[in-house]
Amino acid sequence: MKDYITVIGAGLAGSEAAYQIAKQGIKVKLYEMKPTKFSPAHNSNELAEIVCSNSFKSNLLTNACGLLKEELRRLGSLLIKIADENSVPAGQALAVDRENFSKEVTKNIKGNSNIELINEEVTNIEEMAKDGIVIIATGPLTSDGLQEQIQKITGVDKLHFYDAAAPIVTKESINFDIAFYGDRYSQEKKKDESVEEWKKRLEKQNNEEKSYINLPMNKEEYEQFWNELVEAEVVNLHEFEKKEIFEGCMPIEVMAKRGIDTLRYGPLKPVGFDDPRTAKRPYAIIQLRQDDKCATLYNLVGFQTNLKFGEQKRVFSMIPGLKDAEFIKYGVMHRNTYINSTQLLDETYNLRKNENIYFAGQITGVEGYVESISSGMVAALNAIDDFRDREKNHRFSDYTIIGALAKYVSSPNLKFQPMNANFGILPELDGNKIKDKKARYTKLAMRSLDNLTKF
Fold first, then answer.
1. Cα–Cα nearest to 251, from 261, 266, 271, 270
2. Which of 127, 180, 413, 442 gets the highest tally of CB atoms within 10 A of its CB?
3. 95 beta partners
4. pLDDT in tens, 348-363
5. Contact at 8 Å (CB) between 228 and 318?
6. Contact 154, 344 (CB under 8 A)
7. Residues 51-108: pLDDT tens digits?
8. What is the pTM of this model?
9. DSSP string, 26-57
10. What string of DSSP letters covers 73-88?
11. Residue 289 and residue 50: Cα distance in Å, rounded?
């Protein structure tokens, strides 16, 4: 057996895996094809580059992703620690300055004497795994050459689906005669509040809370926008690409074509807001979320898109408040790769037909940043057990989100598709069902953390 563990891919999962292995005093050879070769969606030389949203989702324990982050904090996750240290205001969510986050991950990985970073594309997994342990964490943008290798070792011929990313605009180019700050529900006028009291509270809130910018629309503005959106030109996709768009990241123009009111019940729902100009609920609303530490950049929430760049500028500039918006990054459509994990992996992310090979990250079908970090940690801890020739001691209970995700991607499921952290994958509570959702989620969270502590 080789005296090191190989990790392929230095994204979120791969970086976490490499760190966990190195922390145990084991040498790691970490392969990353950047900057020698870039995927269609990557452009930074740094490790753990964040391509889509800069949000790691809610920090609340009554949110499954918030609970997952707390589990990872208690287990000593490097990437969650760095995310916490590089957070930007985002209400109850954990959002990061993506550039600083990636730089800090890169610094920690390159500065670790147990990790050797090798910048080249891997196309010989079978050779590497003959007498050594390999963790494949190449993420949702696996290169064609490596994809062929994965198809060969897994015995399947279809690995990919497609995802989309939202555009980013500068704050200074947003018209604040129309736009206003505030989180959903915290901003709307209370029943016992006068208009004067409400506007004073909004003014105070605007000085303190900068994480979300809101752009209200009336009925006429919304319908004009919708008409242009559904008729806008998109980048041409092959037929198989059109069929494989993942529902959890649906391009906004595809969603719009499902009906004129679909967006108003989705990313543009106006519930929980009142327009400061009218003191009434708008017909629709667009939210922009802070994207960097300095609060100079904001991304359009829910606006993942495959529109041509010129069309994005034309159509999205119709949104009230964005007439003169400066788009510093347009939305893109890119390939995402995942394996049929339910048929291939066990709950340690180990390939059943080759015990020297593990998978981690979104390629396993866990969907999301925090979920990818979780899989990287689980794969690494079990790879360490294998490396030291001992029984695998890191099969996490499915009472935890970490364990429930691992179980989900390793349990036979005929309709398998990528899955985010959610309370639905946890076993139900014993006894009478708690009807209040918040109370039920709180109890599930406490059960999870108690189980993790005992483990």
1. 266
2. 180
3. 55, 88
4. 999 999 999 999 999 9
5. yes
6. yes
7. 878 999 999 999 999 999 999 999 999 999 999 999 999 989 999 999 999 999 999 9
8. 0.76
9. -EEEEE--TTTS--TT---SSSS---S-SEEE
10. HHTT-HHHHHHHHTEE
11. 15
